[in-house]
Amino acid sequence: MRELSGAVAGARVSDFIALLKPRVMSLVVFSGLAGLVVAPGHIHPLIAAVAVLCIAVGAGASGAINMWYDRDIDAVMTRTRNRPIPKGNVDPNEALGFGLVLALFSVVLMGMAVNWTAGSLLAFTIFFYVIIYTMWLKRRTPQNIVIGGAAGAFPPMIGWAAVTGDISLASISLFLLIFMWTPPHFWALSLYREGDYAKAGVPMMPVVAGARSTKIQMLVYTLVLLPIALVPAVLGVAGSIYAVTALLLNIGFITHALRVLGSSDLRRAQAMFKYSLLYLSLHFAVLMIDRAPGLLHIDSLSGLIDPAWLHMLVG
């Protein structure tokens, strides 16, 4: 059932903002900005701002179209039933039109104002999230998050391409960090929201494979994620500060996964979900600080402080 009963009584601005999934957008923008900051080369501040705006608008467009398509299951799930369409605040067709206009605007502006490599990546990201994840995978397979997570992993590559105009092994390493982080992040959420997903008929891993199997897979992903998180430092995208931080953050992630595996207390899964948000945010924050021009410039794992910066400190 795609349509929802009830008349729409005039949407407010706040309803259309909610369609953009601002909390999800903030993490997307932050990781896209990180890709832009650490990319080699130079970009005019105004063009950089346009690139970040396009990433934000593209993410919001994806969220709006996702809410249009998922309005039936959103109305069933406790976590999503207060979204603008299930509440009757926004007409589904208006939400779809809003999302499509924003998607077209973001891609065209990115291509014309920045470069078409970044524009093409943004277009593919929107396509992947809307068509591959939302319309194809989400309701059909417990691997929905594993494959569909790629959509959320593209923003650093888009930011990188905005500066360089290309795709490199370094930008792919940033993609892989988010791609491998996504399953344990969302499965932690789905463990304590299992009833919601079961009621809506969404085949999340705990619903299909059970909690024990899901917890084991979460631990495996966190173990695999540790070396992947260190790849940016190995490739020279980041230095020692990032490497040490990534190591500590991944030990923390693995510890959370072990606690979830060894306990039936759903609060453990909720704590892991919250930690996963901090985990990714700190990775990209430290990545940008590590490579901040004029402050820290770390070329390899062997150097902690740039000599020129140290000389400035001691006068």
UniProtKB/TrEMBL annotation:
- Which GO terms of the molecular function aspect are on file? protoheme IX farnesyltransferase activity
Which Pfam families does this UniProt record tie to the protein? UbiA
UniProt-annotated location(s): Cell membrane
Pathway membership, UniProt: Porphyrin-containing compound metabolism; heme O biosynthesis; heme O from protoheme: step 1/1
Query: What is the uppermost EC class here?
Result: transferase
Q: Does the keyword Zinc apply?
A: no
Q: What else is known?
A: Carbon 2 of the heme B porphyrin ring is defined according to the Fischer nomenclature.
Looking up NCBIfam families in the UniProt record yields:
cyoE_ctaB, PRK04375.1-2
* Protein name per its UniProtKB record: Protoheme IX farnesyltransferase
What is the organism field in this record? Answer: Dongia soli
